[in-house]
Design brief:
Strands 1-7-6-4-5 form a five-stranded mixed sheet, with helices on both faces. Strands 8-13-12-11 form a four-stranded mixed sheet, with helices on both faces. With about 325 residues, the chain is an alpha/beta fold. Helix 3 crosses helix 4 and helix 7 runs parallel beside helix 8. Helix 4 links the parallel strand 4 and strand 5. The structure holds oxa(dethia)-CoA. Oxa(dethia)-CoA (UT7) binds next to helix 2, helix 6 and helix 7. The site of oxa(dethia)-CoA has 19 residues, from helix 2, helix 6 and helix 7.
């Protein structure tokens, strides 16, 4: 049996940190409102020299170093983003070229905030069927480029960044490590609750993000609790077996509500929304990298990744470190 084992992780953030207080100078909002409703205190905003591909490349390099694997050994790059550098080619190919590992498979996945879960599920399937041996799975975004800075209901919520992991196909039992179960879903009926009002085939413009936050919130808590239980059931495990939840970082209240629904203590949830805000596809691997580097997530731990976003799309993945 082949399993996809997580060998290392890395992340990258733009140089510029923007506090709530700084935002409140140009947007009709306050630090109090943002902290109370979302838990967000800070976000990072890319400048013109920082792009989704450059952040992704920096995160990928850090993940390769952590894994002790050379770029030339990577034969698959799956990059999740809703903010590609160009409409085409895929940002994954730009990263591949920057890393100098040309010749393998490289493509982007579009599932917005659930993108990293979709990318992980795709890469895991490809490794387990023998199509590739070592993969970079990346979530990278410059969501600040999609903001309507006049719309306070959305522009305070998002940030930019990238996270990456190295996955390796391992045959036999590598002490039980690797991806155990992945569950993914989509429901296209909810497009109008969270979308971008532009695109190459419609307006010919990039467009701006539009969200009916309260309704998205409601769906998020229900869908996440349900998909987490599905993944646990598939693995034959229970919530009590989970050492760490690494969730999509949209809102601290969603993280609390989901943990409560599962009966999980808040201390088992890796929270970075206060510092990174919502970085869409980048948020799960960014949070994972924080948990790895500060020593909380250790070898042998059972980690639950989960996310929900535009589409709607949502998913969960259980992995043993
Ligand atoms: O990553 C993809 C998934 N996305 C999510 O999961 C986001 C889910 N939704 C949320 O996180 C929350 O719904 C929000 C943070 C977006 C909003 O929080 P809320 O508690 O649902 O607030 P609300 O939309 O019901 O707005 C409450 C009030 C409104 O004023 P009125 O109509 O009650 O007078 C808003 O106009 O807060 C007002 N408001 C603001 N006030 C100050 C909205 N945005 C702001 C703001 N600053 N930035």
């Amino acid at each position: 049996m082949i399993r996809s084992v997580i060998r290392g992780s890395g992340s990258a953030l733009p140089a510029r940190a923007v506090s709530n207080a700084e935002l409140a100078k140009t947007v009709d909002t306050s630090d109090d409102w943002i902290v109370e409703r979302t838990g967000i205190r800070n976000r990072y905003i890319a400048d013109d020299s920082e792009t989704t591909a450059s952040l992704a490349t920096d995160a990928a390099r850090a993940a390769l170093v952590a894994a002790g694997i050379e770029a030339s050994d990577i034969d698959l790059i799956v990059l999740a983003t809703a903010t590609p550098d160009q409409t085409f080619p895929a940002t994954a190919t730009i990263v591949q070229n920057a890393l100098g590992c040309n010749g393998g498979i490289a493509f982007d996945v579009a599932a917005v905030c659930s993108g990293f879960l979709y990318a992980l599920g795709t890469a895991d399937s490809m490794l387990r069927t023998g199509m590739a041996k070592r993969a970079l799975v990346i979530g990278a975004e410059t969501f600040s480029r999609l903001m309507d800075w006049e719309d306070r209901t959305t522009c305070v919520l998002f940030g930019d960044g990238a996270g990456a992991i190295v996955l390796e196909a391992v045959e036999g039992d590598d002490a039980g490590a690797g991806i155990i179960a992945t569950k993914l879903h989509a429901d296209g009926a909810h497009n109008e609750l969270l979308y971008v009002d532009g695109g190459p085939s419609t307006t010919g413009t990039v467009g701006k993000l539009r969200m009916r936050g309260r309704e998205v919130f409601r769906h998020a808590v229900v869908n996440l609790a349900s998909v987490l239980n599905e993944a646990l059931e598939e693995a034959g495990l229970t919530a009590a077996d989970i050492d760490w939840v690494v969730p999509h970082q949209a809102n601290a209240r969603i993280l609390d509500a989901t943990a409560r629904k599962l009966g999980l203590p808040a201390e088992k949830v890796i929270v970075t929304v206060d510092q990174h805000a919502n970085t869409s596809a980048a948020s799960v691997p960014l949070a994972f990298d924080v948990g790895i580097r500060d020593g909380r997530i250790k070898p042998g731990d059972l980690v639950m990744f989960e996310a929900m976003g535009g589409g709607f799309t949502w998913g969960a993945c259980l992995a043993r470190m």
